[in-house]
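This part of the workshop introduces the protein records we will be handling. An example says more than a description, so a record of this kind follows:
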Amino acid sequence: MHFIRTAAIVLARFLLSAIFLTSAVNRLFHWHETEKIVTNILCDWQTYVGFSSVMQKCFVVLTPWTPLLLIVATLLELIGGLFLLVGTREKLGAGLLISFLIPSTLFMHQFWFLDGPDKPMEQIMFLKNMAILGGLIMVVLHGAQTSGRDEDGFNSGSHQY
């Protein structure tokens, strides 16, 4: 039973980290295309928040910082994904991935502003990211240990309340 639990946790860590690691590596190989996409999305947001000149100015100021935002996003994904994958400091890794996932989901998958054929796909992508966020929160709360003991040294499932 211990082998199955260990194998399942290793597989879960791999599956949860794979999307972030492949995204970061893909971004490195397609940097300029990604930079254009993010710049366009920030420009779209300027239109979306047309009701507020203050918010529009925020996006105008943020747009030239796109390369720095991408560097930070890539580092969060790589470091967080690697921590989670290898099972070292996985709570910190999950926290880094959460700090990447929340803003990127809100800014990249703004389905609530869309009409037409793109809206259902963006809504699915948004909900997919919310599901991943739930998994990362579980890792932050409970870790992703391969031993039969939790962080307090108790056998899994043996807590008495």
Notes: Residues 46 and 57 are 8 Å apart (CA to CA).
